[in-house]
Every structure is written in structure tokens, then in C-alpha cells.
Design brief:
Radius of gyration: 18 Å
Number of strands: 0
Number of helices: 10
Strand content: under 5%
Distance between the termini: 30 Å
Structural class: mainly alpha
Largest sheet: none
Helix content: over 70%
Order of helices and strands: HHHHHHHHHH
Amino acid sequence: MVMIVVLTLSLIFTSLVMGAGSMTLAMLLSCAQGIILIFFIYKLDSIEPEPIPLLIKLFLFGAIPLPIVVTIIESGIQYVVDILTPQGSLINSVLVAFLVAAFSEEICKYAVLKKLTWKHPAFNYRFDGVVYSTTVAIGFEVVENLLYLFTSDAGTAYLRAAFPGHCIFGIYMGYYYGQAKSLELSGDESAAKQMRTKGVLIAMLIHGIYDTVAISCSASEDGLFILSGMLVLVVIMCVLNVNAYKNIKKYAHEDRPV
């Protein structure tokens, strides 16, 4: 756990000191982190590893069509939010974080996840839900980080890459997704639906809270507020990274057939 905290802090520090000329290194960091996380989660699935072609399909769907669909949905919601609330205000930041980002992205990731895996014969262990969910999420995250790189300064790109947010959101969504599969196979479809919904809502909640702080910082011109917000983000990053690492190890250890 100490290693996770140190790694997070070192990546954040790098984000603050790197200049805009470090595009290549930022791109490598963004892509490498996703590949490392997929490999790490895949290795944890030691009882019955998932078929590689399925994981490649999940990753590619998360990386290619999903960002396009999300961008279209987010643009529509952003337009409405900006009409109803003053840009730069706290309520605008909260709505952008929870509706534009968290709602749109988590719903779309879930739609891909369920479409490609719910009826797949390889989905026969609870931990499989975590593997599938995080694979879609990491595919999306790699592309999103690259888009941040091309539309923002290198510091922002590094800061985004320092926190594998979508992977962490995917861990929680995938945990409940695996539980839901077990409930459905036991004949309780209503409970299965509730469990899937719970996973999506928890992912949205964590995502929305993180983005609220990040967006509020970027919208502020108060140096002290920005510094305070950055410190809060660092704490959130470390807590979520450590908690996700502990939970994913626990989920893998307790894995059993659905």
C-alpha cells in the first residue's frame, strides 16, 4: 500500500514539473499505465483466466467507439447545463462532474460491458465481472488521457495519467456486476438488476466526487483555493488507489463460480 501511495505522489509531482514539450513521454505514460493495470488484473484472475480475444474486444470497444458516443452525449448535456447554470459556479461544476462526466461515461461503459459479456459463456466466476469492467474502462481511459494531452498542457495530461480513475471506478462496478450474475443464475433477476444498478451508481458517485473537486479547481482563479483543491485531490487519489488495491486483492481471493 505504501508503494501505491508513493507511486501516485511521484506521478503527480511529475505532472507539476514537466513542460509542454514532453508530449511523447506523456503519451507513453498514459498508454503504459493502462497496459500494466490490465496485466495486473488479468494475473489476479488465477482460477480461470478470461479468453484473450474477449478482453481485446472489450478494450477496443472501450477505446474506439465508446469515446465518440460519450462525447456526443456529453456535448448535449453540457449545452443544457451551461444554459441553466452560470459557467464557473459551484452548481455548474457539480452538474458537469456528475451529469456530463460521471453519468454519461459510466452509463456508456456499462452498456458496452453488459452487451459484450452478460451472456458470454466465459462469464462463470464473480471476479470475471471486475476483469471485464476494468478492461472496458482502461480502453476508454487510455484514449481519454491522450485526448487530454492533445487538448491541454502536459501538466494536465500527466495529472490525469497519475490517477487511473476509470480503472478504479470499473473495479467497483465490476464487483457488483459479478455479484449480479450470480443472483441471476440463482433465479433472482430482480436482485440481479438492483445489484447491477448499485454498481453503476457507486461508480458514478466516486467519479462525480473526484471530478467535482478537479473541475472546481480548474474553474477557480483563487491561488489558495486551487492549492487546497490540489491537496484534496492528492488525498483522494491516494485513498482511492490504496482502497481499490486492497479490494481487488480481496475480490480475487474470495472468487468463486457464479
